[in-house]
């Protein structure tokens, strides 16, 4: 009866009567060899890792969190992010202590979405993870446009000079994001963090397009 009043469906495949079905959970599961090293069109100057392609249940869940208010899907996405971060730590790509910094989200977009979804994923992913702390260190300045549909060069011009530090962070850092497309945001974020004295060891994304 409750499902009739408040329809419940999987955030990955729309299967009824569940928020996240076993099939989509398997699709998002992180294998022993993941995340994979990728090469964005714009090189941010540090290794970039992705947990999978921006497709299928992974894509649908990210869109649902960002555009449809599906806060319940932060948990499975954060679990994948945590597994990827644990692998980077076990492989020696990243050492503790390490700060996790979420890639910046436009402020008006964060307000519209009820908060910054990437920061929420980062917080959930690192909860009680020894030697790992989340620092909300970056923010975008005004006049950053939506990057959907922009070319690599246009994305780079759109974000250049428009990421600003809002909280100091030093030592080793992992920059996390939901999607890496061209690498423009990652590159500008890495530049700002380096200028502030941090050493960015890697970028880790839930998906790459």
Automatic annotation (TrEMBL):
SUPFAM superfamilies: PRTase-like. CDD domains: PRTases_typeI. It comes from the Bacteria. PANTHER family: DNA UTILIZATION PROTEIN YHGH. Belongs to the ComF/GntX family. This is ComF family protein.
